C-alpha cells in the first residue's frame, strides 16, 4: 500500500499542461509577460527562464495593458528580454505533515537546517486556504497555560484565541515568544520568523527555543534580505502547516513575528502591481490581507484541533496607533503591550499590564482569580497615577490609604512580573504567589 501511495503522489506531481509566454520588460522585481492571457490568474505560480538556462519561481501579482505581471521569489539576475515564462501545474506544491516537526524550512517549504529532505504528507494543501465557516467553528476553549506570570494572570490566552503582542524594536518580543513556545501547553508549535534579522535566527532556535522546544515545532524563516514574496509567503506557510496539524486533531500554537513585516512585504507587492498608496503608503490590499491571514487561526470544526495564534506587531516609532497596529488590534481577541519605559528599567518581560487586554476575560478566570486580578490592577493603576509625585517626594505617606498600599506593594508586584526566559510558573502557582502579595497589610513589608 505504501508503494502504491508513493506512486500516486508521483503521478499527482506530473504536469498536465504547459504554456509559454515571453518576457517583455523588467522593473525592479516585476516582470511583464506577453502570451499568457487567460492562462495565469492572480496568485498562480510559474517559471521565468534566464539567459543562462536557469529557472526562477514567480507569482502572478496582476495585469497591465494585456500583459501579465510576475514577481520573482529571487533576484532577477540573468533574466533578459525575450526569455520565456513557463507555466505548469507543478510549479509549486505543499505537502506538510507531522514529519515537519523539529525542522526549519524557508517560505517555499524547503528544508534549510541541513538535516536532509522533509518527510512530507501525502496530500497537497493550498497556501491561502479559507478559514472554517464561522457557524461551523467550535467556541474558544479552556485557558492555555503559558508559564509567563504576566500573561497567565493579567492577559490570559485560551485555546483557539488570537492574541497580539505590540512593541517597538528591541523591547523583547522574540524573547517573550520563545518563553511561550517553550512552556505553553500545546501539542505542536508553528513559528514564523518573517523579515527577521539573519544573525538572530540561529540565536532564537538554539538559545531561546532550545532543543526541547524545537522538537515539537516547525520553524518557517524568511529573513529581511529576501524578496517580498518570500516574506509574505512565510506567513501564509505558517498557517498552512498549522491547519494541517489542526486537521489531525492537534492543538497548535502558531507564533508569527511579525505581522508588520508581512504587511510591509504586501505593501511592496501591491505598489509594484500599481495599487494606490493610502495611509503611510500602505495600499488597500494590505488591510484586506491582514484579516484573511489571522482569521485562519482559531477554533476548528467538531472533531478537529485548534490553532491558538500569537502575532507580534512592530509598532513604528513606538506609535501604538499607527495604521497596522490599529488594524490588527481590531481583528484580534486581545493585545499584550510591551513598554520601552519598563524595558529601560530592566524589568523583563516588559509587559504593561494596564494597557494589555484579553477579550476572554473575565470568563476564563474563576471568581477568586478575577478578584485577585482586579485588586492587582487597581493597585498598579493607583501607583502609576502617583508615580511622579512619589518619585520627586511630593506625596506624603498617610495622605491616602489606597496610595500608601499601592506604594508599599509596588516592589513586590514588579518582582512578580519580572521573569527569566528559563523560569516557568504554572498558572495556579502564579495566583497563589499573587494572593500572598496582596494579603500583606498596608505599611507592612511584603
From TrEMBL:
Any single GO BP term: protein secretion by the type III secretion system
Transmembrane portions of the chain: none
Catalytic activity: ATP + H2O + cellular proteinSide 1 = ADP + phosphate + cellular proteinSide 2
Entry keywords, A to Z: ATP synthesis, ATP-binding, Bacterial flagellum biogenesis, Bacterial flagellum protein export, Cell projection, Cilium, Cytoplasm, Flagellum, Hydrogen ion transport, Ion transport, Nucleotide-binding, Plasmid, Protein transport, Translocase, Transport
AAA+ ATPase domain residues: 159-343
Chief location category: cytoplasm
InterPro entries per the UniProt record, alphabetical: AAA+_ATPase, ATPase_a/bsu_AS, ATPase_alpha/beta_chains, ATPase_F1/V1/A1_a/bsu_nucl-bd, ATPase_T3SS_FliI/YscN, FliI_clade3, P-loop_NTPase, T3SS_ATPase_C
Coiled coil location: none
One annotated Gene Ontology cellular component of this protein: type III protein secretion system complex
Keyword flag ATP-binding: yes
Principal EC category: translocase
E.C. no: 7.1.2.2
Protein location: Cytoplasm
GO molecular function: ATP binding; ATP hydrolysis activity; protein-exporting ATPase activity; proton-transporting ATP synthase activity, rotational mechanism
Matching NCBIfam families: FliI_clade3 (TIGR03498), fliI_yscN (TIGR01026)
Alphabetized PANTHER family for the sequence: ATP SYNTHASE, SPI-1 TYPE 3 SECRETION SYSTEM ATPASE
General function of this protein: Probable catalytic subunit of a protein translocase for flagellum-specific export, or a proton translocase involved in local circuits at the flagellum.
Entry's family note: Belongs to the ATPase alpha/beta chains family.
Record's protein name: Flagellum-specific ATP synthase
Gene source species: Azospirillum brasilense
Amino acid at each position: 500500500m505504501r508503494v502504491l501511495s508513493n506512486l500516486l503522489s508521483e503521478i499527482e506531481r506530473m504536469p498536465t499542461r504547459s504554456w509559454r509566454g515571453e518576457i517583455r520588460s523588467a522593473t525592479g522585481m516585476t516582470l511583464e509577460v506577453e502570451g499568457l492571457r487567460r492562462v495565469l490568474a492572480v496568485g498562480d505560480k510559474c517559471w521565468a527562464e534566464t539567459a543562462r538556462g536557469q529557472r526562477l519561481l514567480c507569482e502572478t501579482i496582476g495585469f497591465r495593458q494585456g500583459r501579465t505581471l510576475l514577481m520573482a521569489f529571487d533576484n532577477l539576475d540573468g533574466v533578459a528580454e525575450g526569455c520565456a515564462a513557463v507555466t505548469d501545474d507543478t510549479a509549486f506544491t505543499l505537502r506538510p505533515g507531522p514529519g515537519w516537526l523539529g525542522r526549519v524550512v524557508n517560505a517555499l517549504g524547503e528544508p534549510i537546517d541541513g538535516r536532509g529532505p522533509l518527510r512530507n504528507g501525502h496530500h497537497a494543501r493550498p497556501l491561502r486556504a479559507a478559514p472554517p465557516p464561522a457557524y461551523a467553528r467550535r467556541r474558544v476553549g479552556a485557558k492555555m497555560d503559558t508559564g509567563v506570570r504576566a500573561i497567565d494572570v493579567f492577559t490570559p490566552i485560551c485555546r483557539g484565541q488570537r492574541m497580539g503582542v505590540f512593541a517597538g524594536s528591541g523591547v523583547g518580543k522574540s524573547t517573550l515568544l520563545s518563553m511561550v513556545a517553550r512552556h505553553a501547553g500545546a501539542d505542536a508549535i508553528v513559528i514564523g520568523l518573517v523579515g527577521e534579522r539573519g544573525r538572530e535566527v540561529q540565536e532564537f532556535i538554539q538559545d531561546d527555543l532550545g532543543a526541547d522546544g524545537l522538537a515539537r515545532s516547525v520553524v518557517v524563516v524568511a529573513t529581511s534580505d529576501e524578496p517580498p514574496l518570500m516574506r509574505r509567503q512565510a506567513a501564509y506557510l505558517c498557517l498552512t502547516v498549522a491547519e494541517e496539524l489542526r486537521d489531525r486533531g492537534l492543538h497548535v500554537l502558531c507564533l508569527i513575528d511579525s505581522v508588520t513585516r508581512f504587511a510591509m512585504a504586501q505593501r511592496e507587492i501591491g505598489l509594484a502591481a500599481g495599487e494606490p498608496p493610502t495611509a503611510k503608503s500602505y495600499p488597500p490590499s494590505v488591510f484586506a490581507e491582514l484579516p484573511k491571514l489571522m482569521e485562519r487561526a482559531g477554533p476548528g470544526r467538531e472533531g478537529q484541533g485548534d490553532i491558538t495564534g500569537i502575532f507580534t506587531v512592530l509598532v513604528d516609532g513606538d506609535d501604538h496607533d499607527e495604521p497596522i497596529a490599529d488594524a490588527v488590534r481590531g481583528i484580534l481577541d486581545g493585545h499584550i503591550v510591551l513598554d520601552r519605559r519598563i524595558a529601560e528599567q530592566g524589568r523583563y518581560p516588559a509587559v504593561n499590564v494596564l494597557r494589555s487586554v484579553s477579550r476572554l476575560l473575565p470568563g476564563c478566570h474563576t471568581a477568586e482569580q478575577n478578584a485577585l486580578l482586579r485588586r492587582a490592577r487597581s493597585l498598579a493603576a493607583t501607583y502609576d497615577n502617583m508615580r511622579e509625585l512619589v518619585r520627586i517626594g511630593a506625596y506624603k505617606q498617610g495622605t491616602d490609604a489606597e496610595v500608601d498600599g499601592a506604594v508599599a506593594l509596588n516592589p513586590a508586584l514588579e518582582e512578580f512580573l519580572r521573569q527569566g526566559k528559563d523560569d516557568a510558573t504554572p498558572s495556579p502557582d502564579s495566583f497563589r504567589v499573587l494572593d500572598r502579595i496582596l494579603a500583606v497589610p498596608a505599611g507592612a513589608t511584603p
